[in-house]
Amino acid sequence: MSTLPFPVVAEPEPAAAEAGRLLFAGQSEFLKGVVAMSGLPPADRPEICFAGRSNVGKSSLINALTGTKALARTSNTPGRTQEINYFMVGGERLFLVDLPGYGFAKAPVAVVQQWQALLKQYLQGRQTLKRAFVLIDHRHGIKAVDAEILSLLDKAAVPFQTVLTKADKVKAADREQILVQVRAALQKHPAAYPEIVVTSSETGQGMETLRSIAHGLSEE
């Protein structure tokens, strides 16, 4: 029997799960919002970033991951995040980075272009970035609007891992079909990490897995 490409990552072993829990059990706090590369904090520790199209649920996922209710601001208005937001996790062991949403945004065109340009500069120039997590709405799979960011990550040689969000909102009958579409799309991208994480900020699904992965990256 052949192995499926891009399988859903297995749940972590107990020791790895506990290490991830302990990392995020420490204080998580907002550090700063950055609107230009010159404002980035010193590259003196590992960092992971979360990218995704507008309104995919990045802020909700970060809040669920860190066990907080309002660490990252959430909004029903697509494109609300217009800067690179830095958070310190685990008593300053790791930077967690919330990137501007890409795609449709209720903002002036010039503003959209400015923060999308910043996103590209960040991905191409941050040496301490261990992995990008690209959030994809599980209900819709990978859309054309995601193609630019995936291609940019390929060109920048930044490893990215696909995180499917809002899994609780997907009908059971549709799950496998959507996964087939996502796997087919990812095969075109050499920077894609070979495992998918399925999450729900509402139910907590996948949070233990993401914490464990983040802990492993923080140790590199």
From TrEMBL:
It comes from the Bacteria. Its cofactor is Mg(2+). Necessary for normal cell division and for the maintenance of normal septation. The keyword S-adenosyl-L-methionine does not apply. CDD domains: YihA_EngB. Gene3D superfamilies: P-loop containing nucleotide triphosphate hydrolases. It comes from Tropicimonas omnivorans. Residues 44-220 form the EngB-type G domain. The keyword Kinase does not apply. Keywords: Cell cycle, Cell division, GTP-binding, Magnesium, Metal-binding, Nucleotide-binding, Septation. The gene is yihA. This is Probable GTP-binding protein EngB. PANTHER family: ENGB-TYPE G DOMAIN-CONTAINING PROTEIN, MSS1/TRME-RELATED GTP-BINDING PROTEIN.
